[in-house]
Structures are given as C-alpha cells and as structure tokens.
Amino acid sequence: MGFGKETDFVIYVISKNGQPLMPTENHAKVRILLKNEKAKVIKRCPFTIQLAYDSTNYTQDITLGVDSGSKHIGLSATTKDKVLFESDVELRNDIVDLLSTRRQNRRTRRNRKTRYRKPRFDNRKRKDGWLAPSVQNKVDTHLTVIHKVYEILPITKIIVEVASFDIQKIKNPTISGTEYQQGEQLDFWNIREYVLFRDGHMCRCCKGKSKDKILNVHHIESRKIGGDAPNNLITLCETCHKGYHKGTVSLPKTIHRGMSFKDAAFMGIMRWAFYNRLKEIYSNVSLTYGYITKNTRIGNNLPKDHYVDARCISGNPSAVSDGMVYYQKKVRCHNRQIHKNTILKGGNRKRNQAPYEVTGFRLYDKVRWKAQICFIFGRRSTGRMDLRSLNGTKINASVGYKNLKLLEMRKNTLIEIRKVG
Ligand SMILES: [Zn+2]
Ligand SMILES: [Zn+2]
After folding, report:
1. Are 308 and 369 members of one domain?
2. How far does CA 153 lie from the centroid of its chain?
C-alpha cells in the first residue's frame, strides 16, 4: 500500500477496544504509528488501522445516506462539510435465471428413466414475511454493506430513500405534519415522479417510437384550469411535447383530462422490506423520497451517480469529496451444474460443483499482476487465469498462475477503490 501524495484517501481508524473513531487523512502520522507498532492494519480495502493504545473518543455527527435500488446501492457517509466514505454497490441480478434453470432441470428429471421418487415440489411452507430469493438477497446485501460502514465509521444517523415519490401525499394533499411542509414547487416534483412512474417512464403519445429519452410532464389542460392533479398530467417525450406546443404533433384522442389510468401497482417491496429491517437493527433511521433527492442534486449542480444521490440523501450535498469511491460487487458463492442448461461437447458430464481451487486460486480472488490489482474472473485447469477489474474490463484473458500474487481471498462482496472526477 503506497502512501504517496497522489493517493490522499481517507484512512479509517478503530479504537483499541474495537469502536470506530473519526477517520484521518494524515498519512504521515499513520505511517509513524504503524512503524512504532502503536497501530496495526486490520483491513486493506478500505484501508483501516486499529490503535494499540487508549484514545479519547472524539466524534462528530456523521450521517449515512443510502440510495437503495434493485441494481445498485449508493452509500455516502458525510459530516456537514466532508465526505468520509462513498461507495457504489452492484447487486446480483442472476438469481432469477439460475433458479428457474434449476427448477427446469429438476423437473425434466422426472421424464428420464430414474428410480421412483416421491413428488416433493409442494411440501414447503412459506413463512410470514417470506421474500423471493432474488429480493431477499438484495435486502441482505443492503444490510451487509451498511453494517460494514458502521464497522469503520461512528455513524450517528442513517437516511434511506424508500421510493421515488410519496404516494400518501398525492392521495391526501391536505396531509399535515412538519415533514409535509415543503412548499408548492417540491409538491409538484413529487406528483411529477408519480406521473412518470404511472406512465411507465414512456411517452404516452408516441410510446417511445421517437427514441427521445428526455421525458416531460405535460398539463393536459392548462395548469390554471386543470390544476396539478395527476389526472391532468401526462408523460410526453420532449420531441412530442415540443411538437404539440408548436402545433406539429397532435395527441391521441384517448388523452384528455380526467381520463382513467390504470392504478399503478405499488412498487418497491424490496426497498420497504429493507427499510423495515433497518429500523429493527439501528436507531435513528429516517426516510426520504427520490423527488427530494433529485431536487437537491439538480439544485446543487451535481452529476448523476448512485453515490452522489446518496450524498444528497445524507442531507449534506455540499460536503467535499476526495474523489475516492469504493466499488463493490456482490458475487455468487457457488457454481453448480444444476444451475446451467448448456450441454457440453462430447456429452461429458461435469462435476456437480466447480472445484474450489484451481492451482491454488479461487474464482474472484483479488490478485496482483504486473503492479496491477485485479480479480480472477475465469480459471482454466491449465492454470491460466482470466483477469478483469470489477466492472468487467478485461485486463488479460490468459495469465499463468505463477505470475500472480494473491492479495485477498475471495469474499461474497468484492471491493475496489477508484478515483473519480
Ligand atoms: Zn413521444
Ligand atoms: Zn405541455
């Protein structure tokens, strides 16, 4: 691990008895502590040290913002003026496919000439609060990555975005309470997000044929006459919207004020399940909505990224970042033949489970090759490895195992530091 000036990343500090302390950027001091054995390295990525002496537990308020999602999680731990940790987590999206292949493989087994087995497809009961495996895995990953932030930083508060709009507020506009006092403009942003969701993020005029990705929300009758109610609003792409107001495009006759809309099926079971679990585990958990995040991000002129959204969610959008982001990727733990449908050449039957180690390396081990840090994405029995970075960028598809140095054994969540901006 180099301590050069160009790598001015935050170093996380754990007290002698295991409590997280405020992190430091004073690399010189850390180097001296390590040299004099007053501290030891307990984690390389994110770089974390544990002190060997008693220290005063001085902490500031740190808020963790969580941009939860089904494909990515954004995390940002901030004080009023500083970003202390930021991360973008990629979730697994292969579970549905793997399990349906397995189901199919188990079913076709019945048609083959095999000994009799009692049917047992229907002998399982679902407990209360059961979630589909793909959803459960996403909820678990959310909780794991948050727990890991709590291990290295003294987080005092956590804020989660649970949905892109607040349905209660749309159904009942006169709702009262301090959290609902937010002014007319933000109210409209809420309705806007709802309308976009209701219309499936698709232009209701051309149904996406114009290929214009920019979507507007159009008042069917002018705002003065028709108002801001969702039944006077419709999603149009910018091409159709501009065309309509110029008079070159006419809207289909089915679009009129008060038209009936299919009630949008309520979304976000994963985000709500996650939020409720979180409240059971941590104190000081609160929620926010996507339309507020979006308003904050645009108001502060920030780029669109999961960790930037998380920074907005944390309530400190102007906190300064050192430009270091931890990329994490959740990966599978097993590689079983029953999850696959591909038939091998020559009709060879493969082992049920891929070998854990090939020439001493496991899939997703973090290794160093020619001063580059990369992950093993593929192994061949000859000992040649496919090396890639976390986002899948190929580094070299065939490196001999003797040229590799193992940095970290594989984990369920792979992690890599990247400099952005
Ligand atoms: Zn259109
Ligand atoms: Zn319009």
Report:
1. no
2. 19
Separation of CA 219 and ligand 2 centre (Å): 5
Measure 177 CA to ligand 1 centroid, in angstroms.
38
Task: Look at 50 and 169; give whichever has higher pLDDT.
Answer: 50
Distance CA 235, CA 205 (A): 8
Domain annotation covers residue 401: yes
Task: Look up the CATH number of the domain holding residue 299.
Answer: 3.30.420.10
Tell me the β-bridge partners of 82.
Answer: 320
Strands (E), 207-317: 215-219, 233-237, 285-289
Q: Cβ-count burial of 415 within 10 angstroms (0-12 exposed, 13-18 middle, 19+ buried)?
A: buried
The Cβ of residue 296 has, within 10 Å, a number of other Cβ atoms equal to 17
Q: Are residues 217 and 307 in the same domain?
A: no
Say how far apart CA 241 and CA 278 lie, in whole Å: 42
**How do residues 295-313 score in pLDDT, each as one tens digit?**
999 999 999 999 999 999 9
Distance (Å) from CA 231 to ligand 2 centroid: 14
Q: 91 C-alpha vs ligand 1 centroid, how far in Å?
A: 32
- Of 57, 63, 56, which Cα lies nearest the Cα of 81? 63
Higher pLDDT, 130 or 169: 130
Domain housing 152: 63-93+131-167+266-330
Model ipTM?
Answer: 0.89
Residue that is written with structure tokens 């996380």 in the block: 12
Which among 11, 37, 58 is the end of a domain?
58
Q: Which residue in 331, 329, 337, 339 sits closest to 355, CA to CA? A: 337
Neighbours of ion ligand 1 (CB under 5 A): 203, 205-206, 210, 237, 240
